[in-house]
Amino acid sequence: MTSHKRKVTELSAGDVDPVIQSLVPFMASLDRDDERTAGVVDMIESLFFKLKQGSRAPSIATALDLQENHIYPYGLEFKDDTAKALVRQRGAQEVDNNILTLSNTKALISLVRKHMSRASLGGCRMLIDVIFLRLASVMSTDADNLSVIPDWTALNTSPGGRPSLEGVIDYLITKRPAKYSGLILSEPVGALNRPDLAHVGSSNIYEARTCSELQSGLMQAVLAAATLCRETQKECARGAVTCGDHWIFFSYQGPKGGEYAKYARTEVLDVGKDAENLELILGVLVDWIENAEVFGPQKYFYIV
């Protein structure tokens, strides 16, 4: 029996990503200025483009793309146990008359885990949605409203016009004056690009991935943060990549003076089997919203 020959359009992220990730170290070792290897580099880049353009896989960036854009990594480490306890305390704070209490949020997380498959991105996003709704419910006030914009398409995330890195931002979390919230939710791209609103409040970028794709999602989110800063003429931005159960937070700073661009990232933070670390995740999320345009020094983390 003849084996089924698949088309590029039938390939999934699980098919494409391992191929790309396996070629990244090899490609990074090649000298682009050496004419003997220039053709090989071009062929690999062409392969990346064809796979990502034609497949159903999400947009993907790699460490190589960050190197080409002169963006270099740093680490984020909790300062000490006291800092971690303060983050948990901040994430556990309640507000009056909020139906989405911390205990109700944990119950919803348990419900999603019990009945929704998280093998695909759809199930992961339902879990992420619950956590973002909790965040919005405790951070929105009469003066300011937290809005969750899924599938943000206003940014061109491909540096240098490279189509292989194009894609939408899975979530833009924005805090703006409450009087604009209806407009932002109805027409987010137009509203948030208005000159009088573009530099009001704060915005964070979040990339949703399955658990096995967190690292590639981080690269993509960092590139998106770089684009956000470039297009809005801001120096810093913050964001995260998550599958709902696991989170990697990062802060980005664009090139400043004679310095190169950089991003600082946490290790993988886990919500926990019984959502026992949900307060920690929520506390970091609150800090990310409140200090969206600060790279460092940071309140709870050392940059290393």
TrEMBL record:
Domain of life (superkingdom): Eukaryota
This protein's name: Uncharacterized protein
